[in-house]
Amino acid sequence: MLQKIYDWIDDRIDITPIWRDIADHEVPEHVNPAHHFSAFVYCFGGLTFFVVVIQILSGMFLTMYYVPDIENAWKSVYYLQTEVAHGQIVRGMHHWGASVVVVMLLLHTMRVFFQGAYKKPRELNWMVGVLIFFVMLGLGFTGYLLPWDNKAYFATQVGLEIAEQVPFIGTHLKTLLAGDADIVGAQTLTRFFAIHVFFLPAALFGLLAVHFILIRRQGIAGPL
Amino acid sequence: MSEEKQQVSRRTFLNYTLTGLGGFMAAGMLVPMLRMAVDPVLQTSGGGDFTNVGLAVDDITTEPQRVDWKIDQVDGWYESEVSKSAWVFKNDKNEIVAFSPVCKHLGCVVSWEGNEDYPNEFFCPCHNGRYYKDGTNVPHTPPLAPLDEYDQKIENGMLFLGKVRTREEAKPREEA
């Protein structure tokens, strides 16, 4: 049955070559943990992506209950956490996953750095990777505010004051982020929500696409 | 025997194992999310909260009268007061009847004798839906079902109304 559906589609739009380009490729011996166990370090990038997928999925489901409004944000999170079946688990996945992503990202960066895999011709992909790192930190920072509890509020206060230290444009940057010159409140929350679920994920998808296309184009760096 | 062995090669076996393991891990990830998403469907509805609608049983006549009252509604994390209304009267058998005013056609609000052309009927102004006094829909008008009824009980001579039920699932009045 599945084979028939696949053949029907393949017959018309010839997807087998696309599929082959995406999934079917040689894994060089030096990155295969079956040959050299130490090659597990090559998994860090893929694992980072795996956790990112978990973040995207759990985040999508969390927005079924979450409200980005100062009156209801905390209440909706509390409701989700205490009343909804498995809500605690899904929020737990998103909460802990956020930290795990940063850890995996760091491990991946360290592997690339210490193996010198960023060297010519792969400098561009290193730069894209650094941008992904910044986007991830941005996601972590904006997501931290969303439960609208005391920890979130004061962490954001501090974060905004850090942004204010930027020379020349600091004050404007802070207002731009917070939505108000003095108040960390209603407008800050909606802004952070928009940045967290629309702007940064969009940037992340674009950067990830470039990151992966470059890997496929240039191949994995050779053995040490 | 050796032919049967050929049917599942080492590679096929490993493929199955890998697919199964991958599916198991994916399920472990997705099940909590899906369970959370379908939670509203699996919530048991809290039945039978009765509210005093502020109408003494002695004041109920054979002429339908509209009663309005408010209930405290808990909607997830949001609690609010919601207005309810009903048409209440005593029928031929001297039983108290409380109809929901929501039209069974498309959910407009019906009124008793809402149109002077149709006396002794409930009338819906949206598409000229009509109901007889016992709540059954007049044939060849838009509604396809009789008006819903409120669960009711009487305490200290006052009328209490509860959940709305369709005619089929309406249950006999609780005396308290």
Automatic annotation (TrEMBL), chain A:
Entry keyword set: Membrane, Transmembrane, Transmembrane helix
Top-rank taxon, per record: Bacteria
Parts of the chain that traverse the membrane: 39-67, 96-114, 126-146, 193-215
Domain Cytochrome b/b6 N-terminal region profile: 5-224
Pfam families: Cytochrome_B
Keyword match Membrane: yes
Statement: the UniProt record of this protein carries the keyword Transmembrane helix: yes
Protein name (record): Menaquinol-cytochrome c reductase cytochrome b subunit
Automatic annotation (TrEMBL), chain B:
Enzyme class: oxidoreductase
Rieske domain span: 88-161
Keyword Transmembrane: yes
Transmembrane parts of this sequence: 12-34
Key words of the record: 2Fe-2S, Disulfide bond, Iron, Iron-sulfur, Membrane, Metal-binding, Oxidoreductase, Transmembrane, Transmembrane helix
Domain of life: Bacteria
InterPro entries, per the entry: Rieske_2Fe-2S, Rieske_2Fe-2S_sf, Rieske_Fe-S_prot, TAT_signal
E.C. number(s) listed in UniProt: 1.10.2.-
Coiled coil: none
PROSITE patterns: RIESKE, TAT
Gene3D superfamilies assigned to the protein according to its UniProt record, in alphabetical order: Rieske [2Fe-2S] iron-sulphur domain
GO terms for MF: oxidoreductase activity
The keyword Flavoprotein appears for this protein: no
Protein name (record): Menaquinol-cytochrome c reductase iron-sulfur subunit
UniProt source species: Virgibacillus alimentarius
